[in-house]
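Appendix C reproduces, verbatim, an entry submitted by the partner laboratory led by Prof. M.T., so that reviewers can inspect both the input and the predicted structure.
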Amino acid sequence: PTAEEEGTDRAGDIADAGSKAESLMEAGNHAGAMSALNSALDSVWGAAPLTINKAVLVASDPQGFGIYDIRDNNQYKSGEPIVIYTEPSGFGYGRDGQLYTINMALDFNIKSSTGESLAIQENFAKWELRSRVPNKEFMGKLTYTFSGIDPGDYVVETVIRDQNSDKTVTFPTSFKIVE
């Protein structure tokens, strides 16, 4: 089948899952309805690109998915930790025996306000999770500490490379060094 036909087949599968879920719910089988919808979500998830649904500067270490305090501004002193809360989606899953694995490698490129690349580092961090279920609620925390950096405006581009698929996403975070 062509890519267009495959997309139509996939859309049909999703619509079928919705109809099945509706029938199950009407019959009082709410768990079965949720399972049918989760199957449709799995189909969409697998076809989706790696995406950052949320990336925000936070005032302290996040405590879990959706559990964070937003920072009031993007101004930091040189050497002060810059903490970013992220919610990626569309990543792939590996297996380790009976466990599902989420594995991502991270790179960064810090740029000046004129776009000049100041520092690049590959594989500076890894995000890993092992779970009995293929978690979709996944929170990634980044901590950047840039010492000896002159006052001014900067952008750090973070690259996330999914190790269980060929998916990659890059997102920018603007910050200002003061003092």
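The chain has a mean pLDDT of 92. Additional entries are available on request from the coordinating office.
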